[in-house]
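lol forgot to send this yesterday, sorry. struct tokens for the thing we talked abt
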């Protein structure tokens, strides 16, 4: 399974030639595993889908993983406020000091 970091680092539009680029309407995140159920689906898909959504909104910009981590953490906190469980994205130290772990 890919981490949110590997998904964030991938540019979804690099594999599309210029002739077909205007035909791309969006993206889709799929998850398949033999070990999924109603209790862990959200925790597995949350950080990866957030990273892919971020990348689809700004595919050509060169954002650092630190910038993405900060944005994804804010999204995680919003999900937790409404009662949705999420997967731990990183160590608590790195949540507090994002720039130390992921750069600026």
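and heres what i got for the seq, position by position
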């Amino acid at each position: 399974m890919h981490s949110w970091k590997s998904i964030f680092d991938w540019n979804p539009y690099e594999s599309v030639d210029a002739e077909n680029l205007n035909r791309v309407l969006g993206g889709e995140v799929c998850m398949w595993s033999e070990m999924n159920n109603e209790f862990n689906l959200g925790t597995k898909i949350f950080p990866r889908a957030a990273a892919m959504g971020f990348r689809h909104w700004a595919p050509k910009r060169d954002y650092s993983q630190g910038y993405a981590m900060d944005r994804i953490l804010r999204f995680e906190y919003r999900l937790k406020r409404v009662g949705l469980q999420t997967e731990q994205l990183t160590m608590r130290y790195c949540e507090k000091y994002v720039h130390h772990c992921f750069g600026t």
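The chain is about 50% helix and 0% strand. anyway ping me if u want another try
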